[in-house]
Amino acid sequence: MIKAHSKCRKLIGRILILIGMTIMPSSAAWAVQDDVVVFAAASTANVITAAAQEFEKRTGFSITASFAGSGTLARQIKEGAPANIFISANMKWLDYLTKAGLLEAGGSVEIASNQLVLIAPKDTVVPDPFDLGKLPSLLASEFLAIGNPESVPVGAYTKSAFQSLNIWDELKGKYVQLPNVRAVLSLVERAEVPFAVVYATDAQLSKKVQIVTSLPQDAYPRISYGMAMIKGNGSHAAKLFFDFVRSKDGQDIFHRFGFITTNE
Length: 264
Known about the structure:
alpha/beta; D-Maltodextrin-Binding Protein, domain 2; 2 domains; six-stranded mixed sheet; five-stranded mixed sheet; 10 helices
């Protein structure tokens, strides 16, 4: 047991370094007055970056984006971080800000959905077909990387799925809980853990991992990405970007990155 805890601490130590390597959030303090400051879930980093580039090309307005776990960003906004728009990987953290009276009237809108997948390092030989019920025995003394269920939507969805599959309790002591989904992905890319649960869109971005199996979609709540304007920060440029993300062109960008869009 001592050896297992020691190994887990070493993994967490390495991931603290990886977090800075995988997602370097742009500081909202760098934004100039006409910039649109977007706080967005880590799993949307690539798609929001692409949408921002297209928006900037069309309008001339700049986007300053910060990517992290949805819970982390929501708490920063509550503490006064100067965001114009918040994009969360679930509705929980939008509801959190709604209750705090920090979102514009009209609340949040859903902009996309996703799926959960179990991944492994690219060269790992895994059973085919894969039985999720046998995951605890396959892990043996190794660890499973997941998002922190308390603050990271992918972790909350994972917990719900594993509870439905009756393996959550059986895997206790084997979880490495991380602060965002890209940190989870990075750990598998480095073969620090044999398995992890991420969104399908994140797995598709990496050439260093393989999708072992999809988690049954009826085993967890619908993955719903929500977007909202922060109260008092609804600039003209921010409203234009908000509308662009929801437009057909914006949704086409989400579709290109593998997200399930509101048109599907």
